[in-house]
Amino acid sequence: AIDHAYKQGGFNGLVAGVQALSEGFGFPIPPVVEEAAAQMIDYDEETSDAIELGIKGTFLDQRLSMSAAIFYQQYEDHHVAQTNNAPEALGGLFGSFFLASIDNAEEVETKGVEFNATYLLGDYWDLSMRAAYSDPTVEDWSTRFCPAGENETPDQLYCPKGDGDSLNNLPNWKTNVQVGYKRPLAGSWDF
Questions:
Q1: For the chain, what is the HEC assignment?
Q2: Are 165 and 136 in contact, with CB atoms under 8 Å apart?
Q3: CA–CA distance, 87 with 85 (Å, rounded to integer)
Q4: Distance CA 146, CA 163 (A)
Q5: CA 87, CA 75: separation in Å to the nearest integer?
């Protein structure tokens, strides 16, 4: 499958609070906070192009179903929540307005493989296994807030990321094994 997707942009509501303090109430705002608020007040639309190749089938008298897929996706202006602690440069009070704000990472790509298998153990029981490997990387993100300890000076606001850096701290491998029980109750209801 080949796919082109779009996700609309939006506004960071708490960041607007910083500008309201300054413009509406005359509260003095440090220049670095004003700069960050102007940059982070809104975020652009996200677009992506993806390709996925997969195969699936049933075996052993339809008691075993399996699927496998390989994928690649490239994002432009990917929406990323800045969930790390607020940068030291913004200070404690103002920094809290920027926690979990959405930003655009200019270029992100992800690639990986997925595998699923389900085996029917009996009339009501099944055993499922899933495994996936994904490698999300940042090719260009110029407005990434500096996580604690990464800034070179206390007033450094942005620590750009790119050239294949990992997008997040999630593990590349994800696995799941589960036993399921499904029994008809009445009519079309299942338990």
A1: CEEEEEECCEECHHHHHHHHHHHHHCCCCCHHHHHHHHHHCEECCEEEEEEEEEEEEEECCCCEEEEEEEEEEEEEEEEEEECCCCCHHHCHHHHHHHCCEEEEEEEEEEEEEEEEEEEECCCCEEEEEEEEEECCEEEEECCCECCCCCCCCCCCCECCEEEEEECCCCCCEEEEEEEEECCECCCCCEC
A2: no
A3: 6
A4: 17
A5: 26
Instruction: Note the pLDDT tens digit of each residue in 50-106.
Output: 999 999 999 999 999 999 999 999 999 999 988 766 677 777 777 778 888 899 999
The residue to which tokens 């609309």 are assigned:
8
C-beta atoms surrounding 128 within 10 Å? 14
Residue 26, phi-psi category: left (phi > 0), alpha (psi -120 to 50), beta (remainder): left
Tokens describing residue 39: 């940059």
pTM for this one?
A: 0.77
